[in-house]
Amino acid sequence: MTDAATEITVGTVVAERQVHITRDSLVRYAGASGDFNPIHYRDDVAASVGLPGVLAHGMLTMGIAVQPVSEWLGDRGWIVSYGVRFTRPVVVDPETGADVGIVAKVGTVDDEGRPQRIDLTVTAAEQTVLGKAQVTVAFR
After folding, report:
1. What pTM does this model have?
2. Are residues 103 and 16 in contact, defined by beta-carbon separation less than 8 angstroms?
3. Is the pLDDT of residue 67 over 60?
4. Residue boundaries of the structural domains of the chain
5. Strand, helix or coil for residue 93
């Protein structure tokens, strides 16, 4: 990971994290977001619609993924835009939960050499769960 004193070029890793999600995390997120779709907390409902298990909310996964970039920016800048393509669900085991891995790399730099786009690689169970995950940033 880099700090303000490190030279930043395309491909530089600026943030990296692994986040553990439990079923308790899903219940808390459901309460905060108002998304009480039972595929996020009931195995029987998830199975009845052909899912491999209870799934983490897509927006929870998306929020977890961008957090390391936000923390890396701190008060030096802000997130201008953020977009992803949901490619695979994050299945949350009732006992072991799920681990979401995030690696944030510089995708482009501006004319002054400052990061302009951060590309995220977001995985769970050794598979990419968010595709084309890109964060446009601006600096003060």
Report:
1. 0.91
2. yes
3. yes
4. 13-22+56-139
5. strand
